[in-house]
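dumping this here so i dont lose it again. seq + smiles for S-adenosylmethionine
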Amino acid sequence: MADPSFPGIAAEIKRLTGLHIEPEKYYLFEHRFPEVMRQKGLKTFGELLVELQRGTDHKFIGHIVEKITTHETRFFRDESIFDALSQQILPEWKDRNANPANPALMPPLTIFSAACSTGQEAYSIAMILAEFHPQLVKSTRIIAADISEESVERASQGRYTAFEISRGLTEKFRKKYFTEVEGGMVVNKTLLPRIEFKTMNLLTEKMNEKFDIIFCRNVAYYFAQDSRITLFQTMKAALKQEGILILGSAESLSGYLTDYVLREFGLARYYELNTASITMFARKK
Ligand SMILES: C[S@@+](CC[C@H](N)C(=O)[O-])C[C@H]1O[C@@H](n2cnc3c(N)ncnc32)[C@H](O)[C@@H]1O
């Protein structure tokens, strides 16, 4: 018999993170929380619920959030979107932003890797810039954020195990952008300073700047419907006019927000913010 505190715990987790945990997944609480509960001296799930509702021990709550969130990621995850970035999104951005009097003069390009987990997505973006658009590198800011302090800490170190390195990185990129260290590889300093990593809850905090491109992948998938709406509204508010929103391959804006045009490049799909047009998901080329 499931513990009677489980629905309350699920509601608290949703309030804290947006994550939607179905009753058939309540067994995860029994698998993932006991160790953290023991460290805090909590004996029952009822006591855990009270602690979550009290909400004063942020470190403990952070550990609980850590245990229940999925941090799965890899370099160049869903490769086709990185082809789209390199061959369509960035060239179009350059065309739109070029100064006819001085084509070399570009405004700053800002990219947000939302829910960045341990940073592989942000470094993949940085590698695309360095490899295929080196003239943009200096004027680009990449911000990467995640709710998980542990993941953000790891991301900012840029240090990966051999297994993590083997997932998605070609030998060429491995050699060019990483250096071997004990137990794995570390991102070269040429890529590290380009990314600002920070801890952030995408559902409760707002971005205080606007971005040209937002990667917000494989996080809405785990959210309840109302949290998805909040997330998508936050992302829209953080996009510049004609900004690009990239979701995970199993995620879609359909039924949530208008004002976007669905764009395609090979197998990749992404959204372009177009508040001037009322067309919902009209396809551009
Ligand atoms: C499955 S990973 C996706 C990582 C990366 N975007 C990718 O597609 O490979 C989901 C990430 O979302 C983060 N996350 C979950 N809820 C969040 C929230 N409310 N605010 C910010 N990040 C959140 C988790 O900590 C986790 O690292």
